[in-house]
Write a structure and sequence with these properties.
The protein is mainly alpha-helical and 205 residues long. The protein has helices at residues 2-8, 20-23, 26-45, 55-64, 69-96, 105-128, 132-146, 152-160, 171-198. The protein is 71% helix and 0% strand. Helix 8 packs across helix 9 (171-198). The structure holds protoporphyrin IX containing FE. Pfam families: Cytochrome_B.
């Protein structure tokens, strides 16, 4: 624990580590978007109702009846899209500056895990809209998972529940999107930040 605290808030920061033109703060912007998503997502949970017949109508209610609901929903939607873009650009910057090389190869792998999590979060958010398009997307995902020999059907049930072709919103998707995946992503991000310091800070190798 002491080790974690010492590295997450170091007393000395090496010269050049904070250069904006080296990182373009793309990792920091990704984290900012993640915080916005957490706050707006929590507010949306007060009125969103998962399920085939309730999801879409609850979103319409949020957007048109609940005070500031439309603003909160749009903030959540755009922060999600922006995060997908900034995380990808951040990864390109890491490739461009060769920062995936030793000693940062483990943090690169942690980053790959984060990228997958962010994409799955974006996808499950799309399913929660509960529209016909989200129903079609959920059906495709269940069918693709079903192709995995032996495990496919169980994996589909565990990750998506039983979505209908008319709405991708199920309680299972909802809990993954609002609790399971964000928790894992948050823990992995703090490990990512700790590793940056542990690997000597952000600076040319
Ligand atoms: C939730 C997504 C992510 C967040 C919030 C995040 C955050 C950060 C932050 C704040 C930094 C410090 C420098 C900077 O801002 O560029 C950083 C560095 C780094 N990130 Fe990420 N990151 C994420 C995803 C990724 C991905 C997808 C990869 C690669 C697959 C990656 C690999 C790295 C590496 C290797 C470093 C060290 C770079 C260096 O020392 O120059 N990260 N990350």
């Amino acid at each position: 624990m002491k080790n974690f605290v010492n590295h997450i808030r170091p007393r000395f920061v090496p010269d050049g580590v904070l250069s904006v033109l080296y990182t373009f703060c793309l990792g920091g912007l990704s984290f900012l978007a993640f915080i916005v998503l957490g706050v707006t997502g929590l507010l949306l949970m007060f009125h969103y109702q998962p399920g085939e017949s309730t999801s879409f109508s609850s979103i319409v209610t949020i957007a048109s009846v609940i005070p500031y609901g439309g603003v909160i929903r749009n903030l959540h939607y755009w922060a999600g899209q922006i995060m997908v873009v900034t995380v990808n650009l951040h990864m390109l910057r890491v490739v461009w500056t060769h920062s995936y090389k030793s000693p940062r190869q483990l943090n690169w792998l942690v980053g790959v895990g984060l990228l997958v999590l962010i994409l799955v979060l974006d996808f499950t958010g799309y399913l929660l809209i509960g529209s016909q398009e989200s129903g079609a997307a959920a059906t495709v995902a269940v069918n693709i998972l079903g192709l995995i020999p032996g495990l496919g059907t169980a994996l589909g049930q565990i990750s998506l529940g039983e979505p209908s072709a008319l709405s991708g919103s199920t309680l299972v998707v909802y809990v993954w999107h609002c609790v399971g995946l964000p928790m894992v992503a948050l823990i992995l991000q703090f490990y990512h930040f700790w590793r940056i310091r542990r690997d000597g800070g952000v600076r040319p190798l």
